[in-house]
Design a protein that fits this description.
Layout (H helix, E strand, L loop, with lengths): L6 H34 L7 H28 L7 H10 L10
Helix pairs in contact: 1-2, 2-3
Length: 102
């Protein structure tokens, strides 16, 4: 009788690689967003340390914001947030929203 193959470890490795690439892509996108915000605020340059700190702050803000929207959806018995949940979360943070007109 042949020994079972170890496809589980190669599948796990592939999954880890995909997750790493997704995190790397998200980090690069967040860095670009923070750089655009800094430029719009009048900065011509930023140190690596300041950029990393701003990325951490933005990530924490989004995590809290999206968590609030998810909690609102959960309280309403929905598995995922909808636009009303997102709008309420924005308003809690003092951001004005505009109604979408069709």
């Amino acid at each position: 009788m042949a020994a079972p193959s170890s496809n589980a470890s190669s599948s796990s490795s592939s999954s880890s690689s995909s997750l790493f690439n997704a995190r790397e892509t998200a980090d690069a996108l967040l860095e670009q967003c923070v750089a655009v915000i800094c430029r719009q605020c009048g900065f011509d340059a930023i140190t690596r340390g300041a950029l990393d700190l701003l990325k951490q702050l933005v990530a924490a803000y989004w995590k809290e914001f999206l968590g609030q929207a998810a909690r609102d959806a959960e309280l309403a018995g929905r598995p995922r947030p909808n636009m009303n949940d997102v709008r309420r979360a924005l308003e809690r943070y003092g951001l004005k929203t505009v109604e979408a007109h069709q």
